[in-house]
Amino acid sequence: QVQLVESGGGLVQAGGSLRLSCAASERTFSDYAMGWFRQAPGKEREFVAVISRNGIITSYADSVKGRFIISRDNAKNTLYLQMNTLKPEDTAVYYCAGAGSYVTRESGYGYWGQGTQVTVSS
Fold it and tell me: Quick one: which of 66, 59, 17, 62 has its CA closest to 35?
């Protein structure tokens, strides 16, 4: 099965930026729509953003719209999440995931990374 590894998390002050990366081991990376999800302590995992196989179509949760940018480089088998103007409520473990089609539902994703911690201080 495809392996996904997130990186780029860390501690940042409110208003700052981070770029998360998700490296995929699968040669057929370009066959998957890719999404970012996050889970804060004591809360359910929630959708953040999704990008289509060719990178043309994207969608974002209302909470991050205008601040986060999802992108992908299929030649490098890598997914990115540029996070700008970070807020304390963005604090969570961020996961990348792959789906066979362009969806926002968590149930549509069959492959998941281990997650990377993002902590935003006030």
Answer: 59
Read out DSSP for 18-37? EEEEEEE--TTGGGSEEEEE
The amino acid occupying position 103 is V
pLDDT tens for each residue of 17-68: 999 999 999 778 999 999 999 999 999 999 999 999 999 999 999 999 999 9
Cα 103 from chain centroid? 13
CB 117 within 8 A of CB 93: yes
| Other beta carbons within 10 Å of 41 | 7
Nearest Cα to Cα of residue 33 among 111, 95, 92, 93: 111
How would you classify residue 15: left for phi > 0, otherwise alpha for psi between -120 and 50, otherwise beta?
A: left
Which class for 78: exposed (0-12), middle (13-18), buried (19 or more C-beta within 10 A)?
middle
Distance CA(58)–CA(60), nearest Å, equals: 7
* Residue whose C-alpha is closest to residue 44's, from 92, 88, 81: 92
Q: Which amino acid is at 16?
A: G
